[in-house]
């Protein structure tokens, strides 16, 4: 085979290897972690093995054809391959989401709450499932879980709020728990999902439509911030562990220097691929959402995750008169309530009391 043709064949094998490995990591590893043995798990792991074998064949072929110092070209080629793996694996992982079941025993009833199983439909015709605990004070809060979780993750927060008389609507994001639709773990469908939840609350006789707030964890926190700009009916937002769901979000708080520049490039590439793989449209940045919304925000950050505080400070700078930041020393991601239960209860309920 002529040398140019061998080189082209080797490049094609390497590209296929990167693609197969990236998809295999994004599908196979994630599904194995969440659901164990399943058809997507097997297919994903098979692609992962195939991809690794293809990459190995490409490297071996290059090594046999090239000698001396020219073999050093493997170093930049390996870096390019790593970039390719990142911009394939991450978008696939956040758009090909495995089904997420409720953990056993994690229900409102387990905490003595009288919760009703309810359903409602989004504007784009996706059925969402939720638990509803009726309001005693006329106000209500939509509770949004994080990526790879279900409404069960927000039961502890619901328990606290219900004790203060708030109605609480614990929602399964689309593609999670018992909700229909295709999951998307960057929360790009948040505006539609939260809007449908607010519609539900507006139809309740025990809820004053002018006293509706949203509390979200991680992905749910980012959805809550974004939805506040899209829906003026949302009068208050509590967001914990929110850092960003677009490249524009992270661009505002990533460090400078080489590491920051590299991460910015990777983000732009990976989010562009995400846009190709999901039906959702890229949402406005969190900073734009805070600026466009008239609601007050309480942003809770984990003391062990410096990126959270950096992201929150950017949002506070956007609207200092409406944004509060509370950093919980020693807390891990979305675990402020367990780290500081008394202070969490006092801060969150006081904020909601004042806003709603």
UniProtKB/TrEMBL annotation:
Instruction: Report if keyword Transferase is assigned.
Output: no
Q: Does the keyword Membrane apply?
A: yes
What are the transmembrane regions?
42-63, 72-94
**Residue ranges annotated for the Serine aminopeptidase S33 domain, each copy included:** 137-255
Q: Which Pfam families match?
A: Hydrolase_4
InterPro entries linked to this entry: AB_hydrolase_fold (IPR029058), FrsA_esterase (IPR050261), Hydrolase_4 (IPR022742)
Keywords (alphabetical) are: Hydrolase, Membrane, Transmembrane, Transmembrane helix
Sorted alphabetically, which Gene3D superfamilies does this protein's record hold? Answer: alpha/beta hydrolase (3.40.50.1820)
**Protein family per UniProt:** Belongs to the AB hydrolase superfamily.
Q: What is this protein called?
A: Serine aminopeptidase S33 domain-containing protein
- The organism named in the record is Blastococcus jejuensis
Q: What lineage is on file?
A: Bacteria, Bacillati, Actinomycetota, Actinomycetes, Geodermatophilales
């Amino acid at each position: 085979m002529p040398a140019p043709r061998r080189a082209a064949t080797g490049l094609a094998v390497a590209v296929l290897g990167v693609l197969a490995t990236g998809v295999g990591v994004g599908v196979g590893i994630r599904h194995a972690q969440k659901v164990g043995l399943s058809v997507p798990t097997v297919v994903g792991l098979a692609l992962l093995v195939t991809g690794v074998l293809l990459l190995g064949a490409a490297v071996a072929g290059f090594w046999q054809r090239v000698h001396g110092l020219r073999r050093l070209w493997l170093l930049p080629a390996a870096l390019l391959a790593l970039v390719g793996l990142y911009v394939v694996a991450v978008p696939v992982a956040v758009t090909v989401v495995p089904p997420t079941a409720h953990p056993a025993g994690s229900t409102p009833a387990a905490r003595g709450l009288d919760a009703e199983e309810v359903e409602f439909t989004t504007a784009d015709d996706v059925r969402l499932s939720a638990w509803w605990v009726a309001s005693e004070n006329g106000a209500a809060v939509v509770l949004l879980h994080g990526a790879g979780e279900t409404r069960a993750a927000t039961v502890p927060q619901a328990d606290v709020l219900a004790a203060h008389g708030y109605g609480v609507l614990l929602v399964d994001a689309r593609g999670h728990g018992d909700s229909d639709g295709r999951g998307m773990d960057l929360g790009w469908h948040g505006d539609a999902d939260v809007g449908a939840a607010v519609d539900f609350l507006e139809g309740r006789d025990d809820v004053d439509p002018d006293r509706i707030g949203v509390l979200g964890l991680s992905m749910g926190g980012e959805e809550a911030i974004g939805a506040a700009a899209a829906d003026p009916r949302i009068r208050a937002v509590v967001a914990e562990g929110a850092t960003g769901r677009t490249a524009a979000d992270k661009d505002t708080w990533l460090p400078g220097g080489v590491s920051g520049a590299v991460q910015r490039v990777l983000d732009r590439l990976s989010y562009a691929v995400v846009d190709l793989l999901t039906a959702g449209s890229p949402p406005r940045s969190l900073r734009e959402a805070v600026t466009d919304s008239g609601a007050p925000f309480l942003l809770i950050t984990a003391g062990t995750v410096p990126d959270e505080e950096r992201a929150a400070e950017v949002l506070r700078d956007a609207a200092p008169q409406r944004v509060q930041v509370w950093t919980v020393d020693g807390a891990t991601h979305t675990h402020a309530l367990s780290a500081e239960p008394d202070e969490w209860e006092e801060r969150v309920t006081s904020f909601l009391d004042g806003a709603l």
